[in-house]
């Protein structure tokens, strides 16, 4: 049988466990000692003034955590909401306000659902102002002189949400709002910026159908709603265009040879382009045609976070044109562009390309290079070797121009090249060419000369004296046949684990260790 609500308010639950402290009042000791089974206590008794108490047998009595009865707060407990609870309450109020505002815009004002939803969710400052106006409605009403009816926490939240929602509906009905404020905020204009832009004689968005039509044209074209505010701020005339004018201007930009993505970047970075003549404003595109660069290539370098002055941008090529260097500049620029693409295709890093252009830009601009695949076929080399050849001798690019005959590079004897590297390495260490030490070292060493040098450098970096390293190599040339990580583990074992001084390693044969 279900218990009544009044009975539920008096339920207690014994919690087995050691009592870690004394009770809050002396009355609770006497009451707890008499408890040997389930009891019902009146909530007005002194024991009910505390959350829990410890009995003599180690049982602690406290309110049932799932009880429907409201907890009675004692004098020593402060009823202070946690910061996290307040944040959750504010977020709940914000969701209620967003929902009420969206219903007002869509149902009452007749704005399309997508626009109403965007405005309600993208205008947090305006929503906070609405909540500030109805903050008194969120407070729980007091019922003086009457017994306060029991309500659960869930019921209280629902009633509070209902009060806030009804208060907002009354506010919308009897105190009309300026709908342009949340609209401007939702498209990315801050409140301090949109105040001068507010219409003086209008309050409702539907009264300015021209602006809404142009706004939807931009949205349907693919421009983010939150970015349209920059267009409104920098080129307000766009939103007063007649039917079909804005769409035709966007189409005209595409007809200039730009993709839809490039047009969006162009409009976002330079909104005034929609007001001016694109043929006059974008003269730079004709210059790109002259130097052999596709027009849409420009869109790869546009940023919506920056603005561009296209009139000044075209002054640089115009300056060279006035000096009579039109053809020369065009050819040089075209060759330079091809040279950069050539370097990137053979595997040169971006940083090395910048350095190469700075130091050898005149070579790249003066020669029209063949395709990398063609050069690699004629030379019978791969990308890595071609890259190394070009970086070591940039003058080779002059031989790779269109029309020039490229001769096949003779094959290199890898064994002979490795042998020469070993000889050079040993000579740098002080070995005499043709000596017994040199012969012994050449027979013992395995690997390339650069690998041997890396292992030698590692031994020196560990703290060994270079003379001691040479002495180790003379005594046991096979030391350098071991990889660096093997040498590192052996040295770490001898020095850190065995306690040998670093200087004594020259007397130890690391090869047989």
Automatic annotation (TrEMBL):
GO molecular function, one term: nucleic acid binding
One Pfam assignment: mTERF
Keyword terms of this UniProt record: Transcription, Transcription regulation, Transcription termination, Transit peptide
Alphabetical GO biological process terms: DNA-templated transcription termination
Listed InterPro entries: MTERF (IPR003690), MTERF_sf (IPR038538)
Similarity remark: Belongs to the mTERF family.
Protein name: Uncharacterized protein
């Amino acid at each position: 049988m279900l218990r009544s609500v009044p009975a539920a308010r008096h339920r207690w639950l014994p919690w087995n466990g050691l009592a870690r402290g004394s009770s809050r009042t002396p009355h609770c000791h006497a009451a707890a000692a008499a408890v040997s089974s389930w009891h019902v206590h009146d909530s007005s008794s002194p024991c009910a003034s505390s959350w829990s108490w410890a009995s003599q047998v180690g049982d602690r009595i406290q309110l049932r955590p799932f009880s429907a009865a409201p907890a009675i707060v004692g004098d020593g407990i402060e009823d202070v909401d946690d910061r996290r609870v307040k944040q959750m309450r504010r977020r709940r109020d914000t969701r209620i306000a967003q929902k009420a505002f969206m219903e007002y815009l869509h149902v009452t004002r007749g704005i399309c659902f997508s626009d109403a939803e965007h405005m309600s969710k993208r205008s947090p400052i305006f929503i906070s102002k609405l909540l500030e106006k109805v903050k008194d409605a969120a407070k729980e009403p007091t019922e003086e002189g009457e017994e306060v009816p029991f309500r659960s926490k869930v019921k209280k939240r629902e009633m509070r949400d209902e009060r806030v929602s009804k208060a907002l509906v009354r506010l919308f009905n009897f105190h009309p709002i300026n709908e342009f404020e949340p609209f401007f905020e939702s498209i990315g204009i801050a409140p301090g910026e949109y105040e001068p832009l507010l219409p003086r004689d209008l309050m409702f968005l539907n009264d300015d159908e021209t602006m809404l039509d142009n706004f939807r044209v931009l949205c349907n074209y693919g421009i983010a709603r939150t970015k349209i505010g920059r267009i409104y701020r920098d080129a307000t005339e766009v939103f007063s265009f007649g039917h079909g004018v804005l769409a035709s201007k966007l189409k005209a930009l595409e007809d200039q040879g730009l993709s839809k993505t490039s047009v969006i970047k162009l409009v976002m970075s330079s909104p005034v382009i929609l007001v001016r003549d694109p043929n006059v404003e974008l003269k730079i595109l004709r210059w790109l045609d002259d130097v052999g660069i596709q027009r849409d290539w420009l869109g790869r370098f546009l940023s919506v976070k920056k603005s561009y002055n296209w009139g000044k941008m075209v002054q640089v090529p115009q300056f060279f044109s006035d000096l009579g260097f039109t053809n020369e500049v065009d050819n040089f620029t075209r060759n330079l562009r091809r040279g950069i693409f050539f370097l990137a295709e053979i595997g040169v890093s971006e940083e090395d390309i910048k350095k190469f252009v700075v130091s050898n830009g005149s070579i790249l601009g003066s020669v029209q290079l063949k395709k990398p695949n063609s050069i690699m076929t004629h030379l019978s080399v791969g990308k890595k070797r071609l890259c190394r050849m070009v970086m070591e001798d940039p003058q080779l690019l002059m031989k790779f121009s269109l029309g020039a005959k490229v001769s096949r590079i003779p094959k290199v004897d890898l064994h002979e090249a490795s042998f020469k590297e070993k000889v050079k390495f040993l000579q740098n260490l002080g070995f005499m060419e043709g000596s017994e030490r040199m012969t012994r070292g050449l027979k013992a060493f395995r690997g390339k000369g650069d690998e041997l040098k890396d292992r030698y450098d590692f031994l020196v970096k560990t703290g060994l004296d270079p003379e001691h390293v040479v002495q180790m190599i003379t005594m046991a040339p096979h030391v350098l046949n071991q990889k660096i990580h093997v040498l590192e583990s052996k040295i770490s074992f001898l020095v850190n684990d065995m306690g040998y001084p670093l200087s004594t390693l020259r007397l130890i044969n690391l090869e047989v260790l």
